Amino acid sequence: MQKNSRWHTLETAEQVAEAACRQILNTAKSAISEHGKFKLVLAGGGTPEKVYRLLAESNADWANWHIYYGDERCLPADHQDRNSLMASRVLLDKTAIPANQIFTIPAELGPEQAAESYRLTVAEAGAFDMVLLGMGEDGHTASLFPGHQHPQDELVHAVYNSPKPPPERVSISARALSNTRELIFLVTGANKQEAVKLWRSGSDLPVASIVPENPVDIYIDSDAFKP
Ligand code: 6PG
Known about the structure:
Layout: E1 6-10, H1 13-35, E2 38-42, H2 49-56, E3 65-69, E4 71-73, H3 83-90, H4 111-125, E5 128-133, E6 156-159, E7 169-172, H5 174-177, E8 180-187, H6 193-200, E9 217-221
Parallel strand pairs: 1-9, 2-3, 2-5, 5-8, 8-9
Antiparallel strand pairs: 4-7, 6-7
The structure holds 6-phosphogluconic acid.
The site of 6-phosphogluconic acid (6PG) has 16 residues, from strand 4.
């Protein structure tokens, strides 16, 4: 488990979303005042949707937000299962974040081409200000799955044979996801209990491979965390 990780256990998924939203907005303010922009990596899957809805209702200095994605599914850009489609519908289309500051993974090009293209984007981004991540029932995060091997020095991986459909994906690497000032994990639901237990007991899961310099914040509801 990440050293000094901060576990924030809240009763409900709604409270998890509210607490995470507050931290994101605070970090955005301090990042923009310190270096003029807020470089945020969005999580995929369903858990972050509640957070994105709350962010969309907030007042933020959107003109200085720069949006990246931790991973994307290799599906057509308008496919309902695209992480970018959910984020656009629920958050990005409702804010004044300039389109040229939203860096969508071109996953419709297929794993290799999209990964190659996004490596340049991640290299240009440098260190992120905040990374948001979810966790799957098997302890995966982004599209980093147990048992998958990737070149350690890659910034972005082409992913094949994903156990979570679709089989082909693109994922920012553990190394690049760890290159961030702050990092939030969002974990809710009873179906995550087993993976949380393994994570907390020190199992070598993909979630445990994300090791920024600063402690990570794990926002978890009472369904997912049974002490
Ligand atoms: C994806 C996500 C993936 C997700 C976890 C949790 O593209 O599927 O990046 O890593 O975060 O599988 O998904 P839920 O939030 O839907 O449980």
